[in-house]
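Q: Got a minute? One more chain.
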Amino acid sequence: MRSTRHPWAGFLFLLPLLVAYEGGLVWLGGDQAARLRNGADAWLRWAFEVFGAGHALAAPAVVLGVMLAWSWWRWADRPDDPVTVWFGMAFESAIFALVLWQFSRNFGPIIDGLGIKLQVTVRTAPAAQVLTFIGAGIYEEVLFRLGLFGGLVLLLGAVRIPWPVSVPLAAFAAAAAFAAAHHIGPYGEPMRADYFVFRTIAGLYFTVLFVARGFGIAVGAHAGYDVLVGVVVG
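A: Always. Here it is, folded:
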């Protein structure tokens, strides 16, 4: 079904997630809401502040604005039944999140076979953590799939690199950047080969979903997977 790939479907699916994330942070964090934001969200807000757009709603407004502009450009072929498409996207997101979660549970024997030790920590997630997982699903997909992957595909296409080369090259670059970003900055994790390899694979997985099923499902699967892992791992 191509309807899930339409930007209007992506906008309608993204809107309640963004409202839940932004509203939930304000409700739980109050004046300290900024301390609950995930890394990708914080990076976007820092970039906006550099250009003088430091309002708390600048990042979600830009994301939704891009989706609306993209939807307007594709308005003629928008889905006829967006409600049915929305529920279908929610179901697909849950399934794809479970697939990646199940793979992560069996990743230890695979990575051990390569001589890399995988350590898994069991942890629980309070409401604030669940919100950060939702935010990660939104803003990491905005940065690494919609922005970096999509931008690289356009850039490589502009210099006449054929798509059978440009798309895999952009996918691997975006996935590696996605994995590396978790180890950068004052809150980054220590570099570990097992985490980096798995997150690169996860980044490729989300890229496939982005290309094949659309931005909304990539966001939903990412957020769903993060929530699953945050609630219980192992």
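A: Residues 114-125 have pLDDT under 50 and may be disordered.
Q: Perfect, thanks.
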